[in-house]
Amino acid sequence: MTDVLRRGRASLAFSFFAQGVAFALLVTRIPAIQDRYGVSDALLPAFLAAVPILAGVGSVATEKLVKKVPPSRVLRWSQPVVFLALLGVGLGERMVELAVALGAFGLAVGALDASMNMLGVSLQRSYGRSIMLGFHAAYSLGGIGGASLAWVGAHWDLALAVSYLPVVVLLPAALAGSRWYVDGESAGAADGGGESAAEGVVFKALLPLCLVMTFAYIGDATVSNWSAKYLQDVLGSSEQLATVPYNVYMVTTLVGRAVGDFGVRRFGAVGVVRGGAVVAAVGFAVVAGAPGAWVGMVGFTLLGLGLCVLVPQTFAAAGRLFPGASDAAVARLNVFNYVGFLIGSPLVGALGDAWSYRGAMLVPMVLVLVTLVYARSFAAQPDRYGGGHERPRTADVG
Fold this sequence. Notes:
Helices cover 78% and strands 2% of the residues. By secondary structure, it is mainly α. The two termini are 14 Å apart.
């Protein structure tokens, strides 16, 4: 059993890593995609918004799908679709081909994100200790690797198809590793009562976690989309220096997640979430009040250390709240990942244009602080919602 769980953990960590690479390769080469297909600045937001919207659809569909097939199977086949869709973006020539490729990417990403986190929550329950942050650390590491590969492609002016060739290596590796995925046996699956288990997910109980997920991704989208512009236009940095904050943010996110599981074991999930929210809020405050670029980068560093713990712990908390219906809870919670992503960038942009970009940074700061109100939702509460005491799951090879 120990070997089964260890192999399952390693193979799932690789899937998180591979997804980090794929997503970074897509988002960091958006200007090249725009040039290749002749997408206008007016049309680009519609293409970018379609991906998270379709990902939300894919996540909702996954909740229905896992009532009939295990999450491991959904992950096994959705990840190759993500890779192939990314290759399609690189190889296409017409606007309609880009639309089809991005549509497939969005739907598959929703299924992939939901099923990966379902398996992560299940494995954590089987382990009996916090391991969820480690999976998201693997994702961050993949994001750094993907962004680095994208930089090489942009620096050497490589064609998109060439830049996306790394997924040709990742695809067979992910398929090979998928044989070791481990599914947890949920109460609903064991009884053949998937519908009744899903009905046990009380939205009122899940709502605080949905809000925290949304606020965390509003913060993340703020850094991803506005850090470079903020440093250059507001804090007066050079163009080269303006590229540094996001890289620093990604590195500190990786570091925070790599050690985060130890923090959860030592201080508990509630303490870690509260600490992360406070550190992130201080980061936004430093960014908003920074007199210059270097102080601004200190703020973005704090943001990486603070925000990085919120999302993994939100998925883990959903699994604890609904031990008999964790798959359904994770799928529904995952939708708010994309809600936050859709809200974050336009919100800061609109506030920046109408008010000031310094003032706009205070809005995600306040939203992150609201997380403190809901911190108790991250404590283990077996048998309160979702029916039945939390118990270790029997692990099966997916």
